[in-house]
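Contributing new records

If you add data, match the layout below exactly. Sequence lines come first and carry their own label; structure lines follow with theirs. Keep one chain per record. Anything else will be rejected by the validation script.
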Amino acid sequence: MPLFTSRKQGKKVKVTFADGLLFVEKENGKQQAFPLEWYPALQNATEEELQDWDQTDKGIHFNALDVDIPL
């Protein structure tokens, strides 16, 4: 899986994918890592699908995949 970062305007988190992991960095600099094997839809997704996310009050929602990551 390629390494890329998506930062959307108005978002308070940074989402990065690398080495089979989803990294979420909050605005305070704290980072959480989630193995993609926990979310098979993310593991098999295209770059376009992975970049299509929104921050919600409960975490991150990947729109095209209908996957929620609680934070």
